[in-house]
Protein backbone atom coordinates (compact mmCIF):
# COMPACT_ATOMS: atom_id res chain seq x y z
CA UNK A 1 0.00 0.00 0.00
CA UNK A 2 1.74 3.13 -1.23
CA UNK A 3 1.27 6.60 0.12
CA UNK A 4 0.25 9.44 -2.19
CA UNK A 5 3.77 10.82 -2.03
CA UNK A 6 5.25 7.56 -3.22
CA UNK A 7 2.63 7.29 -5.98
CA UNK A 8 3.49 10.81 -7.09
CA UNK A 9 7.21 10.05 -7.08
CA UNK A 10 6.68 6.85 -9.04
CA UNK A 11 4.60 8.53 -11.72
CA UNK A 12 7.16 11.32 -12.09
CA UNK A 13 10.07 8.90 -12.02
CA UNK A 14 8.41 6.61 -14.57
CA UNK A 15 8.18 9.62 -16.87
CA UNK A 16 11.80 10.52 -16.06
CA UNK A 17 13.03 7.05 -17.04
CA UNK A 18 11.36 7.39 -20.44
CA UNK A 19 12.82 10.88 -20.82
CA UNK A 20 16.27 9.69 -19.78
CA UNK A 21 16.23 6.92 -22.38
CA UNK A 22 15.34 9.44 -25.08
CA UNK A 23 17.95 11.89 -23.78
CA UNK A 24 20.67 9.23 -23.79
CA UNK A 25 19.85 8.34 -27.37
CA UNK A 26 19.90 12.02 -28.33
CA UNK A 27 23.09 13.03 -26.55
CA UNK A 28 25.08 9.79 -26.48
CA UNK A 29 28.29 11.65 -27.20
CA UNK A 30 27.74 14.35 -24.59
CA UNK A 31 28.45 14.18 -20.89
CA UNK A 32 25.30 13.80 -18.81
CA UNK A 33 24.02 16.81 -16.95
CA UNK A 34 25.07 16.66 -13.31
CA UNK A 35 21.45 16.80 -12.17
CA UNK A 36 20.84 13.41 -13.80
CA UNK A 37 23.26 11.85 -11.35
CA UNK A 38 20.89 12.86 -8.55
CA UNK A 39 17.95 10.99 -10.04
CA UNK A 40 17.46 7.48 -8.63
CA UNK A 41 18.44 4.67 -10.96
CA UNK A 42 16.03 2.34 -12.68
CA UNK A 43 16.98 -0.30 -10.11
CA UNK A 44 15.94 2.09 -7.36
CA UNK A 45 12.74 2.81 -9.22
CA UNK A 46 11.81 -0.85 -9.52
CA UNK A 47 12.62 -1.33 -5.82
CA UNK A 48 10.47 1.54 -4.58
CA UNK A 49 7.72 1.41 -7.19
CA UNK A 50 7.12 -2.30 -7.68
CA UNK A 51 3.44 -2.88 -7.02
Structure description:
The protein is an all-alpha fold and 51 residues long. The chain has two helices and no strands. It has helices spanning 4-26, 42-49. It is elongated and about 35 Å long.
Q: Which characteristics define this entry?
A:
51 residues, mainly alpha
Structural topology:
Layout: H1 4-26, H2 42-49
What is this entry, summarized?
The chain is mainly alpha-helical and 51 residues long. 61% of the residues lie in helices and 0% in strands. The longest helix has 23 residues, at 4-26.
Overall 3D form = elongated
Helix content: 55-70%
Going by helix content, strand content and strand pairing, the class is mainly alpha
Listing every helix as H and every strand as E from the N terminus to the C terminus, the arrangement reads: HH
